[in-house]
């Protein structure tokens, strides 16, 4: 439900969104569409692979990949995204919070 909520919000703002049901599918989608993806938003507790494990696998395909993590149970010491981690959004988040975080992340990427 949260995944669909996020997709609807971002598509309503004009973003193209690819959706994965679990970490394994997220990695496969990224592998197939790396050049089309500007930002990855992944739940830290995504099924089948943790958010950290997803990031580790994505780095194999694109060493410059950047992500936003989200979680309802987030603790700063749970993830080690290094320079690839553009931020963390805590669930539940509002429409405004999600859009703002995505805009900030994409803006930071454009500034580099």
Structural summary, described in words:
A three-stranded parallel β-sheet has the order 1-2-3, with helices on both faces. The chain starts with a helix and ends with a helix. The protein is α/β, with parallel strands linked by helices and 112 residues long. Helix 2 packs parallel to helix 3 (51-61). The protein is built from four helices and three strands. The relative contact order is 0.16. Helix content is 45%, strand content 13%. The radius of gyration is 13 Å and the shape is globular. The model has no long low-confidence stretch (mean pLDDT 87).
Strand content: 5-15%
In angstroms, what separates the terminal alpha carbons? 34 Å
Low-confidence stretches: none
Number of strands: 3
Overall form: globular
Structural class: alpha/beta
Brief account:
The protein has 112 residues and is of the alpha/beta class. The protein has helices at 2-12, 23-33, 51-61, 95-111, and strands at 40-43, 67-71, 85-90.
């Amino acid at each position: 439900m949260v995944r669909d909520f996020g997709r609807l919000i971002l598509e309503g703002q004009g973003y193209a969104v690819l959706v994965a049901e679990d970490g394994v599918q997220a990695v496969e989608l990224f592998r197939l569409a790396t050049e089309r993806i500007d930002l990855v938003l992944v739940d830290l507790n995504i099924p089948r692979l943790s958010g950290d494990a997803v990031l580790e696998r994505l780095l194999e395909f694109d060493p410059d990949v950047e992500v936003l993590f989200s979680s309802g149970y987030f603790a700063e010491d749970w993830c080690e995204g290094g320079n690839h981690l553009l931020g963390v959004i805590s669930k539940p988040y509002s429409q405004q919070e999600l859009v703002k975080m995505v805009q900030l992340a994409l803006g930071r990427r454009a500034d580099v």
